[in-house]
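User: Predict the complex.
Assistant: Input components as received:
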Amino acid sequence: MSIRHGLLALLERGQMYGYQLRAAFEESTGATWPLNIGQVYTTLSRLERDGLVRPLPESEAGQRPYEITDAGRADLALWFATPISRTDRPRDELAIKLALALTTPGVDVRAVVQTQRSATMRALQELTRLKYASDKPEDLPWRLVLDAMVFQAEAEIRWLDHCETSLVRYRPAPLRPPAPDSGDAGVVVDRPGREAHR
Amino acid sequence: MTVGGAAVLELREVHRTHGAGVAAVHALRGVSLTVQPGELVAVMGPSGSGKSTLLALAGGLDRPTGGEVLVEGAALGGLGRRELARLRRRRIGYVFQDLNLLGSLTAAENVALPLELDGTGVRQARRLALAALAEVELTGLGDRFPDQLSGGQQQRVAIARALVGERRLVLADEPTGALDSQAGEAVLHLLRRRVDAGAAGVLVTHEARHAGWADRVIFLRDGVLVDSTAPLAGVEQLLTGSER
């Protein structure tokens, strides 16, 4: 999700100035996504440039509220109507790390899996504890954000279990250096596989 | 027998081997575990890693081939059959995937049964059973038979039966069974609440989401305890994703 659409959604409720937007943003995401005020104003000025919001006259306290424009409403409606593409999400660093661990000499892949699983499990425990503490009806938006993180952590743990099972049967192909005509048979790297069998 | 602290459950270097010689299967190999009052421990691990064996030993349903199991300081190995049965009925609650509710008894009768077997009068047993049913939010459904209840409600009856009276140790093996995610969550919520009220709990599960309800998660592999977690201290770090 972009901060852009987050702010547009908040302005759809009514006009707000920067600090109000920041507070409302954090409230609706349960502080999972803290914003600094600089990000809010930068985003507002881009939205203004694109004609999606417009500034209103400053209040006596010197605060300038913004309101959403019709173009902003259309943009917001489009955002809600469009599914988030998987390619818009960041690459999975963990998957890449594990793939590299398998092909890097001297890395105990099973230990990498185990360490990650413990860390993710701890995170899952903490998320569940937060969920348990947020059981009022008005906590629902926040609870659903937590649920999303819970399901993601669960998926990661299942994937790590799957990796561990796969490692039991893993026999690495001998890795050779890139030189095409190297006759040096001494550079066979099979340690990751051996570690996996401990 | 010395009492090791205030632990409700203690496993000391517990081994469980089935069969002998070349055919021997080592279900558990030297597992030690302590569960305090107010603590819920989840046990995870692949099939055949020894999870259910651990639970059966903790509940006195099976005996270890080595090491010791203590419940509230009493070594189960030192108890006679009658004493062990009494401890199991009074102090230990079991929730299994297979509910084992008796179809010919009402919800309240199912819950009251272990108390009555233990000599509690019918009226008192019913009073306690209705209180246990209220605790699992089944007030007013005590006179229904299991087949008049939904799957989630039946599972809550099984939980009420496990919690009724003065159970100090609650042992659950995949207690959410085939329930949908909401009903399953309700079951874990109840378990958590009972533990927060001072019981000790052990939850065997293969679902990480369920293990997340525990204070500590232990991982078994091939009968050996390979890892254990405690919750993180800093929630903020987790939420803002500044880690990993």
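The beta strands of chain B are 9-18, 25-35, 40-44, 66-71, 74-75, 92-95, 169-173, 200-204, 216-221, 224-229.
Let me know if you want any component modeled separately.
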